[in-house]
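Write out the 3D structure for:
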Amino acid sequence: MRASRGVLNRKTVYLTVTSVALAVDCADWIGSPPQTVTVVFTMIIAASAGLLAWSPRWAGLAVVIASCTEVALNASVSAVSLGFALVVIDWLSRWWIARTAGIVVLYLVIELLAAPRLLDTLSASLLIATIEIAIGLALHSYQERLADAALREENLRLQMETEEERVRASLALQLHDSVAAELAQSLVTARLLLRETTGTPVERYACVLERSTESSLRHVRTLMSALDYSESLGLEAGEGHAHDDAPSQTLSSGERFLAARGISLEYDACTLDIMVHGLGSKEKELVTLTLREGMINSYKYARSQSVLRVSADTDGDSVSLEMASDRQDSDAPAPEVVGAPLRGGTGLKTLAARAQVLGGELTAGAVGTRWLLGLVLPQPAQRLTLT
């Protein structure tokens, strides 16, 4: 949202400056009609400068070419020549240092070659270039501060959400504990009833009641174990220093936890560790939290004696992580369904929001009898500042 407002403001400013400059030039033409070449270059520069916010690279290049040609031909473009200054400021604010230096040097050389008074022209050009560079660097610094403020605001919001989820998980653990106690009492009663009704027609119903209560108690205890594990990891609250552990260490620590339900892990430790090499601390922490969330969901919903497969991939633009596990029977609950929005309670909503802040994407959903969790993050070199 902040980025879109920034783009909107930039469009408004560029259009306003260009329109005012064009209006000034047109007002000057009323008393003394200009040459055709002056009108042509004025319109080209004004149109290109007005489109600078929409297409900074190509519109800026058009302004540079038209401005350099106009200076070489001495077309006498007046106020609209500010279009070149807009390009310098805009490109510097985007941190296109090499391109900006190139066009400034090119424009300065052409201007000096076409100038009748070399020293005066050099002094004026250097002063104007200094002002343009100062404004561009100041704008870039301002944009960085806005981006940092937006990121801090988003992090605070996520911390509030994760704290709420931690409280919900704690309450859910207490609630499941109460339910487990009631089910245990019901199981004892069912077994007493089975013993008392042995050899009677009611025995069959007592046996069904015992099996149903025992199955429900086992399932509740499984959920309690998963909630207790996530609490101990500090997953919901984002506690600790998750990014200090390599992905292979995180998975290794969860193998014994998954083995309690007969779930095995398949992963390439070397590939996973290479994937996070070069990522920032926030990205590494998100990878670790995603791995933990995937293991917890597998513990809750994966079929016993199944395999949780973890794969990673790195290309020139992004890194990706995928976790795939076999779900229980089709009537078993799943953390998410394909096409449904991510909801709280499992941590997926928070992880998806964190990934979006970092320029990535987290997806989760059931595909047939499998449940998939995927994370894609851009490489550090591909991360762009707000425009």
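The first strand starts at residue 264 and ends at 266.
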